[in-house]
Design goal:
By secondary structure, the protein is of the alpha/beta class. The chain has helices spanning 10-27, 43-52, 103-114; strands at residues 4-8, 33-39, 58-65, 78-81, 91-99, 119-127, 140-144, 149-151, 167-170. 23% of the residues lie in helices and 31% in strands. The structure holds inosinic acid and magnesium ion (MG). Residues 38, 41, 66-67, 73, 96-104, 149-151, 155-156 line the site of inosinic acid.
C-alpha cells in the first residue's frame, strides 16, 4: 500500500461494531429483520456486525456502483446485483461501508421502500458528513470521518486494499 495513515484500528472497529450490534439487537427485538449488505465494500463490516446482533435475522446483498474505477462520485447508481429475498413487509437494515455524497444510500433507501419494505433503516461504518450532497437519514453510524480517501476493512481504491482489518487514509490516490 502507498503512503498511508492509520485511522481506525482493529480494536476500535471491533469495539464499535459490538456497540452497534447491541443497539440494533435492542431496537429490532421482536421484529422481522433483514440485513442487506452493499457489496463489495460492506462485506467485512456486514460479517462482523451480524455476529453481534443477537436476533434471528436474514441476510441478503445488493451490488450498487456509483464510483466505478474512479475516486469521485459519478452521481449515478447502477444495480448489478439486486435483492433476492422477498422484502415486502420486512424490517430492512441497509449495511453500508461509507456514506460520502449520500447518493447511493438515498437511491437504495427509496428503492427498497418502493419494493414494499415495512421499514428501512441504514447502518454505516463511516460517515463522511462534510461531503454530503443529498439529505439521507442514517440511523446507525460507526464513525464520523472528516475527509480523505479511506481504504481497508472492505473499502477499496481501484479494487485494492479491501482485505486489511483496519481503515487507513491514503495520502496519494
Ligand atoms: P456516495 O454515493 O457518494 O455516498 O458513495 C458511497 C460509495 O462510494 C460507498 O459505498 C463507497 O463504496 C464509495 N466511497 C466513498 N468514499 C470512499 C472512500 O473514502 N473510500 C472508499 N470508497 C469510498
Ligand atoms: Mg460501497
Amino acid at each position: 500500500m502507498p503512503d498511508k495513515k492509520l485511522i481506525l484500528s482493529k480494536e476500535a472497529i471491533g469495539r464499535r461494531v459490538q456497540e452497534l450490534g447491541t443497539i440494533i439487537t435492542r431496537d429490532y427485538a421482536g421484529s422481522n429483520l433483514l440485513a442487506i449488505g452493499v457489496l463489495n465494500g460492506a462485506f467485512m463490516f456486514m460479517a462482523d456486525l451480524v455476529r453481534e446482533i443477537k436476533l434471528d435475522l436474514q441476510i441478503d446483498f445488493v451490488r450498487v456502483a456509483s464510483y466505478g474505477m474512479s475516486t469521485t462520485s459519478s452521481g449515478k447508481i447502477r444495480f448489478s446485483k439486486d435483492v433476492e429475498l422477498d422484502i415486502r413487509d420486512r424490517d430492512v437494515l441497509i449495511v453500508e461501508d461509507i456514506v460520502d455524497t449520500g447518493l447511493t444510500l438515498a437511491c437504495l433507501h427509496n428503492y427498497l421502500k418502493e419494493r414494499g419494505a415495512r421499514t428501512v433503516r441504514t447502518c454505516v461504518l463511516i460517515d463522511k458528513k462534510e461531503r454530503r450532497e443529498v439529505k439521507v437519514a442514517i440511523d446507525y453510524v460507526g464513525f464520523e470521518v472528516k475527509e480523505g480517501f479511506l481504504v481497508g476493512y472492505g473499502l477499496d481504491c481501484r479494487e485494492q486494499y479491501r482485505e486489511y482489518g483496519e481503515v487507513f487514509l491514503l495520502k496519494e490516490i
